Amino acid sequence: MATSPGTDIVGVARVARLIDERGQDFLERWFTPAEIAYCSAKARPSLHFAARLAAKEAVVKALRLPWDGPLPWRDVEIVHDEHGAPRVRLSGRMRRSAEREDVRAIDVSLSHCEEYATATAVADLVGRASGPVS
Fold first, then answer.
1. Taking CA 12 as the corner, what is the angle to CA 28 and CA 44, rounded to the nearest 5 degrees?
2. Is the Cβ–Cβ distance between 97 and 67 less than 8 Å?
3. Cα separation, 32 vs 76, whole angstroms
4. How far apart are CA 107 and CA 42, in angstroms?
5. 11 alpha-carbon distance from chain centroid
6. What are phi and psi of 126, to 5 degrees?
7. Of 111, 78, 117, the residue nearest 94 (C-alpha)
8. pTM
9. Using one digit for the tens of pLDDT, what is the confidence trace for 49-79?
10. Which residues sit opposite 41 in a β-bridge?
11. Can you tell me whether residue 130 is helix, strand or coil?
């Protein structure tokens, strides 16, 4: 079994600008209805949208799935467990691809400040061995 990390950083101001300029079209392209409801209820929604955007990118990088065409970003959803910790929920094509590659688990951590949001994801890739050390 191998673990595979992925990380991403997103500018909060960029996400705020995209929300201002493209509104619901931007949100519905990238986020599920539950993510939109969660982030929109916060005092500074752009911080939380940026963190979820970074998390989605980090998850895709960690999965290292073969992919053809545009990624279905709403198939990677950031939810919370009973303690409020972020969790990854895959659906649709992304879930089927992860199952084919024998991905067993994905852990994710999110953080943000005024300027940036960042996320790190680690996927357990059961069907693959760790790469060589160089």
1. 75
2. yes
3. 9
4. 23
5. 15
6. -65, -40
7. 78
8. 0.90
9. 999 999 999 999 999 887 777 888 999 999 9
10. none
11. coil
